[in-house]
């Protein structure tokens, strides 16, 4: 499989404290990869260096071989790296479909324009996207009445509306009940399979990670201590030490 993203010896220090300490890894095309680790391990800091939200203290990030280190978030997003946030940025009073249509407008601005015909095209595309996250039956309901898990699905549809080749999801199942977590990641796994995009996500529920991720990386105190398939990572003594305390 072709490599889409590569992080090379990334470091981030906050006033001398090394939150991320020389992390190197890659994500391949069509891969669903998890970044796990205890609270404070440096997962979000890592993510924010990939999306351009944070400038690394040192190290490089490459997208399909081209250096993107230090580029602005907007530019990295334009190059095909999407992200979902822990807090949803939806318009509560608009319908589910309209929220996706708004995202499509910013994606297609130059292509379709703003007229009634364009709005219809956006509507059709929005419904397609909602179907891919199993939310088309809620298309005309206002966002304000959505259940929490459905809001997370909507957030995924909005991220997909920009047609990313790589999607970064920081704790996509935060705040969900265990069974909803599994469902959400099943959905992400289906999208990865159907659309051939790559997803890198963080998660603290191990069951979710081992059920769905193709590969798993474990971060501890700013250092990667494992990077491999579920079985290798599960059996790694250093990982067991971090998660089971011995
Ligand atoms: P995780 O996402 O794995 O929980 P974070 O990347 O959020 O970890 O944080 C890693 C470490 O860096 C933690 O010790 C945290 O307190 C520290 N940290 C995160 N952001 C900042 C910041 N803006 N300033 C100082 N320290 C920070
Ligand atoms: Mg975090």
TrEMBL record:
The keyword GTP-binding does not apply. InterPro entries: AAA+_ATPase, ABC_AA/LPS_Transport, ABC_transporter-like_ATP-bd, ABC_transporter-like_CS, BCA_ABC_TP_C, P-loop_NTPase. It holds the Pfam family ABC_tran. SUPFAM superfamilies: P-loop containing nucleoside triphosphate hydrolases. GO terms for molecular function: ATP binding. The keyword S-adenosyl-L-methionine does not apply. Keywords: ATP-binding, Nucleotide-binding, Transport. Residues 5-246 form the ABC transporter domain. It comes from the Bacteria. PANTHER family: AMINO ACID ABC TRANSPORTER ATP-BINDING PROTEIN (PTHR45772:SF7), CONSERVED COMPONENT OF ABC TRANSPORTER FOR NATURAL AMINO ACIDS-RELATED (PTHR45772). This is ABC transporter ATP-binding protein.
């Amino acid at each position: 499989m072709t490599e889409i993203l590569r992080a090379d010896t990334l470091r981030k220090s906050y006033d001398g404290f090394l939150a991320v300490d020389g992390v190197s890894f890659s994500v391949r095309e069509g891969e669903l990869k998890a970044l796990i680790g205890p609270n404070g391990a440096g997962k979000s800091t890592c993510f924010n260096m990939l999306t351009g939200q944070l400038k690394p203290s040192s190290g490089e990030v490459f997208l399909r071989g081209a250096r993107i280190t230090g580029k602005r978030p907007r530019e990295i997003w334009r190059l095909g790296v999407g992200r979902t946030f822990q807090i949803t940025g939806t318009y509560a009073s608009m319908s589910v479909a309209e929220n996706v249509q708004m995202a499509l407008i910013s994606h297609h601005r130059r292509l379709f324009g703003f007229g009634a015909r364009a709005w219809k095209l956006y509507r059709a595309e929005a419904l397609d996207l909602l179907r891919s996250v199993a939310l088309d039956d809620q298309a005309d309901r206002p966002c304000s009445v959505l259940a929490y898990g459905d809001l997370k699905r909507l957030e995924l549809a909005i991220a997909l509306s920009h047609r990313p080749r790589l999607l970064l999801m920081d704790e996509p199942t935060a705040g969900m009940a265990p069974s909803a977590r599994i469902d959400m990641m099943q959905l992400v796994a289906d999208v990865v399979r159907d659309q051939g995009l790559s997803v890198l996500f963080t998660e603290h529920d191990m069951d979710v990670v081992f059920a769905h991720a193709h590969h798993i990386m474990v971060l501890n105190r700013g250092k990667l201590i494992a990077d491999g398939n579920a079985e290798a990572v599960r059996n790694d003594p250093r990982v067991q030490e971090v998660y089971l305390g011995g």
